[in-house]
Amino acid sequence: MSSALTDLTARPPIAARVAISAVFLTCGVNMGVWATQIARIKQEFDLTDPGLATVVLAFACGSIPMMPVAGALSARWGAVRSVTAACLACGIALALLGLAPTVPLLLAAALVAGAAVGTLDVTMNAHATALAAGWPRPIISSIHGWFSLGGLVGGVAGGVLTGIGLSIAWVLGLNGIAIAVTGLGAAAFLPFPGERAEPGPGFVLPRGPVLGIGLLCLLSLMIEGGVADWTTVYLHETAGATLGWAASGIAGFSIAMAIGRFGGDRVVGRFGAAPVLVGSGLVTAAGIGIAVAVPQPVPATLGFVLTGFGMANIVPLMFAAAGRVPGVSPAVGVAMAATMGYGAFLMGPPLIGFLAGAVSLRIALLVLVGSALGIAIGGWLRREPA
């Protein structure tokens, strides 16, 4: 094959699948561990809420602008170099983040770490998309399932490491070592590209099919960000659940998403990507709708669990579609879709918050219902499977 990312002849494809799944798993662990340290960072540096928000914003400001750049670099360098380099960069950046002694250096380290994570996100998704395109049956959802599982594992691991008294530097340092070692180990089994460069431009503005796919990613990740940030608040303040119960709501959403992704390939293989996209949007709308319509602990929690099942396969299918746009390399297509999607992931929660302040959180969540219905309509309008 002529494409750098789709030359699967150098290594057995099953080895490549295991290798990239390991990268997804470790990246998920990375995000899960990072989430457990945010409150500790706030306490360690005596940050106010706006101060902590600035740190999180620095991470995002490093990540999102780097995504299109990562797409161009991945298209030029190929899968092995780009994924391995991104893993090493993440390992170093996370270690530096844990060692930052002052707030200005913490912000600088968060910016660098965000850039490294954004690069890894694009390169691993581009590689997975190219690998899935040459597979005899759908596999993209289960590869993403390892990321979801990693997030759960990382959350538990971060809590345990914190509980036994390890400092932020040690926790993030060990996390960084894990992802760097994974990248080096995976490099031996990722399919080695036959060429250094791919045909097509190294950078494109979102338009045509890429723009449509990016809009669906935008809607999907806006929902995911909104649910991730507001589920606990909604269950506690609106549905009247205890804080412990409210925390279980987001856990249920995450577990349902992981299960849905591991089972998603079989569903896509049976029904096709476009029908699954339509069904996913409708299930997501129904889940959030139940939570909004019946603001009580049990039904609202079940609604968010249903939302997790509905959301599970949307982003994997959209990234797979972005990686197969004619005339655009997989890395660049994924980068454009990811940039639009993750921008919405960050902007969705504040939007919900502003609307909640103007009306109510219950009413504000209806925006997410509308977004889910938009995804269903988008899937119905697609003329070829993702």
Q: If you had to describe this structure to a student in words, what would you say it looks like?
A:
By secondary structure, the protein is mainly alpha-helical. The chain has two domains: 13-187, Growth Hormone, Chain: A (Up-down Bundle); 208-381, MFS general substrate transporter like domains (Growth Hormone, Chain: A). 81% of the residues lie in helices and 0% in strands. It has helices at 13-44, 49-77, 79-99, 103-133, 140-163, 168-187, 208-238, 243-271, 273-293, 297-311, 314-322, 330-358, 361-364, 366-381. Helix 4 (103-133) packs across helix 12, helix 8 packs parallel to helix 10 and helix 11 (314-322) packs antiparallel against helix 12 (330-358). The protein is globular, with a radius of gyration of 20 Å. It starts with 12 loop residues before the first helix and ends in a 5-residue tail after the last helix.
CATH topology of the largest domain: Growth Hormone, Chain: A
Which spans have pLDDT < 50 for at least 5 consecutive residues? 1-12, 192-197
Would you list the SSEs in sequence order as H and E? HHHHHHHHHHHHHH
* Strand-pairing-aware structural class: mainly alpha
Multimer state: single chain
Secondary-structure map:
Blueprint: H1 13-44, H2 49-77, H3 79-99, H4 103-133, H5 140-163, H6 168-187, H7 208-238, H8 243-271, H9 273-293, H10 297-311, H11 314-322, H12 330-358, H13 361-364, H14 366-381
Helix pairs in contact: 1-4, 1-5, 1-6, 2-3, 2-4, 2-12, 3-4, 3-6, 4-12, 5-8, 7-8, 7-10, 7-11, 7-12, 7-14, 8-9, 8-10, 9-10, 9-14, 11-12
